[in-house]
Amino acid sequence: MKSGWACLARNLINSIPFLSGFMLQIFSKMTPYTLGRAACVCRKWRYTIRNPAFWRNACLKAWQIAGVAENYKTLQSKYDGSWRRMWLCRPRVRTDGLYVSRNTYIRAGVAEWKMTKPVHIVCYYRYLRFYPSGRFLYKNSSQKVKDVAKGMNFRAPRHDLYAGSYTLSEDKVEAAFLYPGLRPTVWRIRLRLRGTVAGANNRMDLLALVTSGLNGSEVTDSDEDILNIVEGWAEDETHNPDVPAITHKRGLTPFVFVPFEEVESSVLNLPVERMDYYVPG
């Protein structure tokens, strides 16, 4: 009986043009992530979601820094005019969640009468949130993903949250921000973007992480100018002899992307007692 009602309802929905137009309006408001999930519901939705208009809007937003004209040029020259193919094949920085690097290390504990050489596993995270405008936020914290996600925005207090700018060239990401203080220090990072499946762009390999000094004349109030200041710098370059360039060798675990819809359920929230090390894949 239930299957009969389901068949009747499905035929009724398919026979009403108004509902089809209504679904198109709903799909047009959805993010690419939720569009992908909706495509798994049924065959009709899967074909509907292939509408080029959905993917054109997504592409123009994802690569808005390049400009509309340049995006159309890339579309025709590399992706045969297919917005969906461009979305799946062209490297892009995801903005619908956080990139998270979970790092662990062993620290010696205090000797007690039961344990002579105790050790502890310490876990901390690097968080990156990118925006289509070319800006990003960075946070280094021991807090789990579900506790940090709600505060990773420009409206949040900035005492331990840093803002900077980034560029994307092919699959390489370069980003930088300025540490405030008496001796201004610039934080620079180089990343390689990749995905576990086509179009995922859910991994970032950390190629280099460098801190170095700026002289007083290079310091600006705008976090958007910092990339222009350090453009062309060598990895070991510093402009303040009191702040030497340091290439960091620890805490370089690849970044894993966590959509906002999954911050509560992500395995990266597990304590070290249940997951001492995470393999990003």
UniProtKB/TrEMBL annotation:
The record ties this protein, via SUPFAM superfamilies, to: F-box domain
* GO cellular component annotations of the record: cytoplasm; nucleus; SCF ubiquitin ligase complex
Q: Does the keyword Isomerase apply?
A: no
Domain F-box, which positions? 23-60
Location(s), subcellular: Nucleus
In terms of InterPro entries, this protein maps to: F-box-like_dom_sf, F-box_dom, Hrt3/FBXO9_C
Q: Where is the F-box protein Hrt3/FBXO9 C-terminal domain?
A: 72-281
Recorded hits in Pfam families, A to Z, give: F-box-like, FBO_C
Pathway named in the protein's UniProt entry: Protein modification; protein ubiquitination
Per the record, the GO terms for biological process are: protein ubiquitination; SCF-dependent proteasomal ubiquitin-dependent protein catabolic process
- What are the alphabetically sorted keywords of the record? Nucleus, Ubl conjugation pathway
Q: How does it associate, per the subunit comment?
A: Component of the SCF-type E3 ligase complex.
Cited function = Acts as a component of a SCF E3 ubiquitin ligase complexes.
Annotated protein name in UniProt: F-box protein
Identify the species of origin. Answer: Oldenlandia corymbosa var. corymbosa
